[in-house]
Amino acid sequence: MNTRHKHTAKDSRGRTILQWMPTLCAIFVILIIAGCNNSKQTYKKSRVLMDTYCTITVTSTSRTNAETAIDAGFNAIERIQNLINYYDDKSELSALNRAAGLAPVEVSAETLDMLQKAVAISKLTDGAFDPTIAPLLRHWQFTKGETKHVLPTKETISNSLRHIGYSGIQINTENSEVFLTETGMKIDLGGIAKGYGADKAIEAIKNTGVNAALVAIAGDIRGFGNNADGSPWRIGIQDPRPAKTMDKPWEDIIASIDLLDRAVSTSGDYQRFFIKDGKRYHHILDPRTGYPSDSGLISATVIAPEGYLSDSLSTAIFILGPEKGLMLLNSEGMDAVLIDQNKQVFITDGIKEKIKILKPEYNGSLNPQ
């Protein structure tokens, strides 16, 4: 598990990871490991966790300490995966979904904490982010390689929406219990779990004594400390509309940001989608309408203090659109890089001096907020 995974690795739905992983990498990590003038070195390992590639990079003066820290980070991510895996009948999340409308379920501190955070984000975004979206997700198929995409009927979507609503999640912190009030409700924490897992990995790494690391779970990234040469971790934002097809599209970037003790996540309509009758249908569903978001955005990158925030809010902001999204983030003291269908770029004041736009077709429409 300490080396690169085999090409036959599969996700929890039995799909080969390498068949669809490239479409999920909205953010590309640019590690500048140039002429270090001290004894610190950079160590990096990858594993398949949470149905995707997870990469942990640390800087340390000791290989042994670095490996201990990396293993601690992976163990933390794996624990979260096992607790909230929607497709694992033995997970706490599956137990909670089975008991919907029947009885409360006692859960671990981590699951309780994640659900509390998910509900808080749902309230903050007026339901643009909603973890009870699971009944809807199963009716939309975005599997890479699928040739016959059948759209769900209006009746199917209407029936699914009846079971969606974060207000139906009742949390009893005293007893560490969660109750889904309606039969047919189901929770899917995919919109927050990777960021939360990155947070827990960073926490575990810090506890080993290592003082700099970067955790990337697909496009959800959390870092602390500096690179081995003393510079901040540099993150690239993927071009949502590359001019040409690439073997590694996540390396085609339009902007770079230096990341210091922050988290960053991107949601985009180019990660998982299909074209039917000339229209693009992407995987970011609006839980209020049941259909793919039509906010005008094609990419939303959020920079926040913690991974669970950047992860969940990048989805919510994508759905809310540039005006409401930027207003929300500015009020909360967080930052964003938003790109609309005309390649117009919107950025928050907090990062306008820290971002570097690399492609003129985007740079020409830069619109600081």
Q: What does this protein structure show overall?
A:
This protein is of the alpha+beta class and 369 residues long. It has 10 helices and 18 strands. It has a domain at 92-180: ApbE-like superfamily (T-fold, Orthogonal Bundle), CATH 1.10.3980. The chain has helices spanning 17-20, 63-84, 92-98, 109-124, 134-137, 154-161, 193-207, 307-320, 322-332, 360-363; strands at 27-30, 41-49, 52-60, 105-106, 169-172, 177-180, 213-217, 220-224, 233-238, 253-259, 263-268, 273-276, 279-282, 297-304, 335-340, 345-347, 355-357, 366-368. It has a 9-stranded mixed β-sheet with strand order 2-3-7-8-11-14-15-16-18. The protein has a 4-stranded antiparallel β-sheet with strand order 1-9-10-17. Strands 4-6-5 form a 3-stranded antiparallel β-sheet, covered by helices on one side. The longest helix has 22 residues, at 63-84. It starts with 16 loop residues before the first helix and ends with a strand. Mean pLDDT is 86; it is low at 1-25 and 30-37.
Can you summarize this structure?
The chain has helices at residues 17-20, 63-84, 92-98, 109-124, 134-137, 154-161, 193-207, 307-320, 322-332, 360-363; strands at 27-30, 41-49, 52-60, 105-106, 169-172, 177-180, 213-217, 220-224, 233-238, 253-259, 263-268, 273-276, 279-282, 297-304, 335-340, 345-347, 355-357, 366-368. The chain has 369 residues and is α+β, with helices and mostly antiparallel strands.
Features:
single chain; alpha+beta; 4-stranded antiparallel β-sheet; 9-stranded mixed β-sheet; 369 residues; T-fold; globular; 10 helices; disordered N terminus
